């Protein structure tokens, strides 16, 4: 998934500006459309009534890859909106099931370190994607062809996973119904704030690099490569930090750092300093491992799949309306978008102080391979 999505993402801001003359308003609308499937991620539970969660993840990869392949074929404003919607359904269903399966399969005691290693693996995959985009851009290939190649690679991978990859037994029978429990209220609130914060980075920090500092696709690709090189080295260490110091300390550090970074975005006038802030912002993103392991520790094991789906829905409540609102703010005062991000980070920091210093550690059974029809 990271490979296919990274090709889509790294070219997006340049593609929509060059092919469809997007402004901050249109990019805000597109990003809001992109987040609608995230708001509907809870519907993944309904599909699990009929299909194994692991199999559903592969089908989600098919949707994601098809959306990416079609992106370059419809280059009007409406075309970008529709292909983004298709891609996003696959992306968010796959993200939901990936997190759920990882938290079910990994022992709670070592999950932070293991998730850090998995994050490093995704960075390797993204690096491959960025390297391919950079090379094809040097060969002057069109956006349309690059998107088509990336989508085809994703579809081939999905076919391999369906036919050849073993199916694992879940350690606990998962609830296949909508779950919203009062005892998880702090996790839900932190998830909502995380979704709001994410939009500042994903939408407007990247858009600033293109609109304000005139970064080309090759420049953006190089910046993303630096981000993932840092992640490969640092993500496993962040996982070990979560494992050693706990979720409260790690998340507090993340949000203090984000207050500084977002304020820096508002003030920055140098493209080099903006790039440094962007890399630091990406590092803090890796600390979101702590929010996942916090969920793993406070949620009952049989609730993991349903809570992971609910997590994505809550995470995307702000994501649906915030890009549109901030896109309008951007037209008159881009710096205020980042001041709002600083306020969100401060509120998140205050909520994190409610996390207990010590959380329970219960190790689930290791997953077993079962028959694919099981």
UniProtKB/TrEMBL annotation:
Cross-referenced Gene3D superfamilies, in alphabetical order? MFS general substrate transporter like domains
Q: What is this protein called?
A: MFS transporter
Segments spanning the bilayer are 39-68, 145-163, 184-207, 213-236, 248-267, 273-291, 312-330, 336-359
Q: Which UniProt keywords apply?
A: Membrane, Transmembrane, Transmembrane helix
Work out whether the entry's keyword set contains Membrane: yes
Pfam families recorded = MFS_1
Supply one GO molecular-function term.
transmembrane transporter activity
Q: Does the keyword Metal-binding apply?
A: no
